[in-house]
Amino acid sequence: MERGPYAFVRNPMALAGMGQGLAVGIYLGSVMVMVYALAGSLVWNYVARPLEEIELVEKFGSSYERYRAEVKCWWPRLTPYQSGKN
User: Fold this and answer.
1) What does pLDDT average to in each consecutive run of 10 residues of the chain (86 residues)?
2) In a domain? residue 84
């Protein structure tokens, strides 16, 4: 949970997917592709992510809650999260 990109942002795959969708929209000059990417990210953020986080709290308990408090969902940290220091 605290290695690689997950040490900087909680959802690196979702962030990359949203960035990729926006980049394709910009490259193609398609506002509709950009809207689709943003709509997909909103659905993921407000439907899928809460369900995923419930499961993670059930599985990892307070260690995940500490991680979630320290590592933002969408905004990367400048320094990697290290659970041993928290």
Assistant:
1) 84 92 96 95 94 96 93 92 73
2) no
